[in-house]
Amino acid sequence: MQDQDVIREFLVESHENLSSLDRAFVELEKHPKDADLLASIFRTIHTIKGTCGFLAFSTLEKIAHQAENILSQLRGGQRELTLPLVSMIFEAVDAIRKVLASIEASGEEGPDRFEKLTERLRVAAQLTADESCDSPEIQSVPSQPDPDSSVPFQTGPAALPGPLAEPADGHIASELPEGEKPEESVVKSSAVADANIRVGVGLLDKLMDLVGELVLTRNQILQFNAEREDAALNTTSQRLNLITSELQEGVMKTRMQPIGMVWNKLPRVVRDLAVSLGKQIRLDMDGAETELDRTIIEAIKDPLVHLVRNSCGHGIETPEVRVRAGKPPQGRLTLRAYHEGGQVNIEIGDDGAGIDIPRVKQKAIEKGLLRPEHAEKLSDREALNLIFQPGFSTAQTVTNVSGRGVGMDVVKSHIEKIGGVVDVFSRPGQGSTVKIKIPLTLAIIPGLVIASGGERFVIPQVSLLELIRLEAGSSEKHIEYVQGTPVYRRRGSLLPIAYLNQVLGLKPAGQAEAVSIVVLQAEDRQFGLVVDGINDTQEIVVKPLGKQLKGLTVYAGATIMGDGRVALILDVLGIGKRSGVIAEFHEQTRAAAEQKTQSEIDLQRLLLFRAGSFERLAIPLSLVARLEEFPQSAIERASGGQVVQYRNRILPLVPLRSLLEPGAPCPDPAPDPVQVVVLNDGDRSVGMVVDQILDVAEEAVAVRQKSHRAGLLGSAVVGKRVTDFVDLNAVIRLAAENWFQGAGELPNDKRILVAEASAFSRGLIRSGLEMAGYRVIEAADPDEAIRMLEQQPVDAVVASLDLPPGGTSALLAAMRARPEWEAIPVLALAESAEQVRTHGGRPMGFQDCQVKFDREAMLTSLARLASALASAVPEPVCAPVGAEGKR
Q1: Which single residue of 103, 344, 683, 836 has CA 20 to 30 Å from 649?
Q2: Over the stretch 664-698, which tens digit does the pLDDT of each residue have?
Q3: What phi and psi, each to the nearest 5 degrees, are found at residue 190?
Q4: CA proximity to 332, closest of 308, 352, 314, 356
Q5: β-strands 751-755, 649-655: how paired?
Q6: DSSP string over 177-235
Q7: How far apart are alpha carbons 576 and 560 in whole angstroms?
Q8: DSSP letter, residue 632
Q9: Which residues 6+ apart lie within 8 Å of 210 measured at CB?
Q10: Alpha-carbon torsion angle 75, 79, 84, 88, nearest 10
Q11: For residues 370 and 382, is the Cβ–Cβ distance under 8 A?
């Protein structure tokens, strides 16, 4: 695919160059002595020759090379421009057009090699200045194309003798016999050239600004219509909304560029560094086609180069050291990019020695960044983050690659400036990975509109994790104080709390009916922000703050709301630092969190609702994207099912009543509006229609009973009442069969570690396992999984094969390297049945492999593995990657 893109770009560029040649030759006929014009024509032919040589188009290269030789002589004044020379160059241009047409049609240059034309050009280039192109050597080669050629070349008067006459007006006189007319040049129109147009970046930026203003106007009209509910205006405003959204999406695509444009220069950087450092380094790049906004690409160029240099200089060892450590002499540097959750993830990983955490702590103490007593209490993750401190370096000496302590802090500040997050993971002896999460674009972003102190603010949705609502009187029960810091007990962990009114110095609100907490992510920390109210989510146009306000770290910009008023955009990291929750939430809070009981670990937030004759149903709240109400008039039918137009998409609806009670009569009259629970995983969404939303409960699920009824996982006691748990796999499959690719006895309270990158997928897997009686802990990557294994024992591990960073093999290698973990069975989850067949049911080092969302197969496999573990330690089929010599 990348080769096709390169060839397509080559065709577009070549046709543009040929068009400019036609114009240049017309001007050259008028001004045959114009040196600048000759130089321009020479450069154009030279560009075509160089590019086609790079792409191994030998016929094109030969034609362009011979024409270039003649143009070089003309440019250097070694020969005089004559009509026969012009005619031959025109023939070369037409031949190039024919070859380009063949490449565009078939991907190959075609059978015609134009050997006679290239020979004529070669002989003409060897003639002296006194010899004419009408010499017998040139004439002996026919000037007409081969009879089987389908392209009529412009031959003109190529055989006419003598130099061109130059009249007083500077034009070249065409000495044609009386009554004879020159043949017209036939130009091969290119579909790929006609389908592309080059536009200046400045024009695109201006267009983006205009679209931003249109979005603001659209928001104002929608709000105006919502306040008046005019039928005629409603139709027009909805049409405007649709057109604006499509226009915005189209303009955004014009600004998107593949990240490979940044990566293209990195192989040379790695090669030069490897030579200078005496190392052997292989660079692998995955996801070069991942697209980003042009402004984002410009912002991450320098950070990426620095991170690559850092991996080459600090991470990968010399061949001798690697061989002594049992590694291949050639180190491996991996660049990976992929889209996830509306963001772009970039990983820079190496298989080097990893980061020496004790040395990091010692260096931090020496530089005065850390006290010795605090260093002992730091976790490995906190110690790793010390490398982002200004002036920090573990290098022994200062070189042109590293040692000055300048770089990682700049990388962090650059990434955070564009709304991104940078994190580092390290495995001693196995390598390090730096993971960057950045937004797709900065111009128009989705945001949550909140109210506080009588003002409206916008929180970028990229930093938003969860919304929590506490009813009046219940906040005292959930919000506690640890070492003077307010915290909220959230699913067994302590979440530090900040009050936006206090942070911004706004007037306190009166007694509210409920407490609204917005859970945010800043750096590697989460905290809750208490606001007066939560309004809505909408796409906002980011306007930068004036230079007088640049010092306000709590604001990231401003936007214009639908009513024309300005709302400030909050800087989540700045709010966290200003409130102190990021700096103050240290060892005391974590120590308190580590003392939580197992029942607190099992706490879940559940959404309770009813449907049909089922008065109490539940699903994990973490899987719910939004709760919506739609009028019956908005529900349509498509593909045999119910759908609704939702946020510029078509949202499939699944009536839960019909799933649980097929054939049961619908209520009369039908409820209006319809209550819908929206489930979302990236670009995929489905709406589950329920009769009534009841409540949100938080407690440990106990007294489980398995169910064999379609659409239900089982029953459990929630809030001292028996509650049925909905099988969301069945709901999703009913709405979208292609959402996923592709039962044993109840266990005795086994604990399972689920390692899966997607929070949505983890929730589905956890839901199925817990209803089968398992106790579940979760991890999003290998490093977090290892920390979970260190904190508490597990009976089995369920891990996705595509677990980033470094793949699931990194987790498996770490487990098999520790004697206490070596016997833990690991079940691999594949994306499709084809992937399972590829691994023969047992990928390297795993005891079994099943399709990710085949719940029954997963439960049967776990029951079998647990039984095998009780009698003997299961032996893996072969050693995992990176664990040489182990079985």
Answers
A1: 344
A2: 777 777 788 899 998 876 557 889 999 999 888 87
A3: -105, 125
A4: 352
A5: unpaired
A6: PTT--PPPPPP---HHHHT-----HHHHHHHHHHHHHHHHHHHHHHHHHHHH--HHHHH
A7: 25
A8: G
A9: none
A10: -40
A11: no
The C-alpha atoms of residue 138 and residue 120 are separated, in whole angstroms, by 6
Residue 443, sorted as left (phi over 0), alpha (psi -120 to 50) or beta, turns out to be: alpha
Residue type, 412: K
Q: How many CA atoms lie within 13 Å of 402's alpha carbon, on the beta-carbon side?
A: 21
Please state whether beta strands 796-800 and 751-755 pair in parallel, antiparallel, or not at all (unpaired): parallel
Residue 319: the pLDDT is 92
Q: Which residues of 128-153 are buried (b: 16+ CB within 10 A; e: fewer)?
A: eeeebbbeeebeeeebebeeeeeeeb
Write down the pLDDT at residue 135.
53
Report the distance separating Cα 865 and Cα 847, nearest Å. Answer: 8
Distance of CA 119 to CAs 168, 572, 783, Å?
Answer: 35, 69, 66
- C-alpha span between 13 and 29 (Å, rounded): 25
* Phi-psi domain of 484 (left: phi exceeds 0; alpha: psi -120 through 50; beta: other): left
Q: Which of 855, 681, 852 is nearest to 768 (CA)?
A: 855
Nearest to 675 by CA among 719, 637, 628, 632: 628
What would the two tokens of residue 226 be? 């919502």
Place of tokens 């692998």: 284
88 torsion bin: left (phi>0), alpha (psi -120 to 50), beta (else) = alpha
Residue 658 amino acid letter: S
Segment-wise mean pLDDT, segments of 10 residues, the chain, 887 residues: 65 76 75 79 77 74 83 79 79 84 80 83 74 52 38 32 38 41 48 63 79 83 79 84 84 80 83 88 87 81 86 88 90 86 80 86 78 75 78 54 54 78 84 84 78 88 84 66 74 80 81 81 79 84 71 79 81 81 52 43 78 90 86 86 84 88 76 87 78 84 70 82 86 65 48 85 81 82 85 87 73 82 86 68 69 81 72 39 33
Residue 319's Cβ-count burial label (10 Å; 0-12, 13-18, 19+) is: middle
| Helices and strands of the chain, counted as H and E runs | 30, 35
Q: Which two tokens stand for residue 57?
A: 């188009």
Phi (first) and psi of residue 419, to 5 degrees: 80, 20
Whole-Å CA distances, 839 to 9, 280, 436, 867: 39, 31, 31, 23
Q: How far apart are CA 154 and CA 352, in angstroms?
A: 62
Q: Which amino acid is at 413?
A: S
Strand order in the sheet with 796-800: 775-779, 751-755, 796-800, 826-830, 848-851
The bridge status of strand 485-490 relative to strand 493-499 is: antiparallel
Say which residue the tokens 């450069």 belong to.
Answer: 43
For residue 868, give every residue at least 6 positions away whose Cβ sits within 8 Å of its Cβ, in sequence order, or none: 825, 847, 874
Question: For 341-478, where are the E strands, in sequence order?
Answer: 343-350, 421-427, 431-439, 444-452, 455-460, 464-471
Assess contact for 728 and 623: CB atoms under 8 A: yes
84: CB partners within 8 A, 6+ apart: 124, 132, 133, 134, 138, 157, 158, 159, 160
Whether the CB-CB separation of 714 and 826 falls below 8 Å is answered with no
Rounded CA gap, 179 and 176, in Å?
8
* CA 799/CA 786 separation, integer angstroms: 12
For residues 165 and 170, what is the distance between their CA atoms, to the nearest angstrom? Answer: 9
Distances (CA, A) of 224 to 220, 553, 632: 6, 33, 24
Q: For the beta carbon of residue 623, count every other beta carbon within 10 angstroms.
A: 20
Give buried/exposed letters for 519-540 (b at 16+ CB in 10 A, else e): bbbbbeebbbbbbbebeebbbb
